[in-house]
Amino acid sequence: MADIQLRTHKNPERAALHSVHSLDAFVFTVPDLDEAARFYEAFGLLPRREGDRLDLFTVGHPHPWGSLYRSNGVKKLQYLRFACFAEDFDAIAARIEQQGVPRCSPHPLGDDRGLWVLHPEGFPVQVVVAPKSAPDQGSEPVVAPRPPVGTGASPNRARIPKVHPRRLSHILMFSAKVPEAVHFYEDALGLRVTDRSGDLIVFMHGVHGSDHHLIAMARSNGPGLHHLSWDVANIDEVGRGMEQMYAAGHVRGWGVGRHVLGSNYFHYVRDPWGSYSEYSCDMDFVPGDFDWRAVDHPPEDSFYAWGPKVPEDFVTNFEVEADQA
Description:
Residues 22-130, 167-282 form the VOC domain. Keywords: Metal-binding. Residues 134-159 are annotated as: Disordered. The chain is α/β, with parallel strands linked by helices. It has one domain (12-134, 165-324): 2,3-Dihydroxybiphenyl 1,2-Dioxygenase, domain 1 (Roll). It is built from 5 helices and 18 strands. It is globular, with a radius of gyration of 19 Å.
């Protein structure tokens, strides 16, 4: 892991732009950490237990992408932590003050670093100074060399290696206040809209370089976590990941398919709590020196270019459904 050096200073061409550069961590609670560890290990991540906390790592990368804690009831998004460069922190804090974004106390599961503010839907968001975990370049698909003539390119099923995602790509959240959420991320934190379909779904990227989206919001009846998306090497790994999770007993999901917005190939695996983890490859990338022109797309292009039929409950927000039951 030591060979990956995360960037700690902004590029000069973005000196005038003061924005968070990465989604530093997601934090949510689940009723059973042992079950969570089994799921994410089967998925190909490296879950590490620290007391009552489960941290999620990817193979070969030093950054902890998120943490899970145990709590009775349904899975629930607790807070998000965004990171910025040291030279941007004061400007972001001043802008948050000017925008009138409410401050809040540190979350009981968090720490007192940086500053804490309230998202428009009431959950805490932390902003800290930390190295840039979002990539500076798009992940290149790994193309296997062609085998000698007379030899098949695919390995036998018994010899297929386990898929291990390389990093977190993005998260998608449910939102009952999509316009307000976009305003918060854009005007307070400095993210930018990449693409959208009205207020049905909005994708946002970081101006210092990120995948097509660091975060996305889908219209719902309340806040919640829909999915975590994990970058893999190629579409073969997307398919192999699907088989890997089938073998582990996780047969509910959606894919293999390809999105229009973001362009990535995908397979979603439903987790034990009604949300999803996504194997994703070959996503569009927004370089740190490029200003992507946001486009409002028709609804038929907001979801996918091709793939199997979408499960009926794919966009059900079980965090809210449980509260209203």
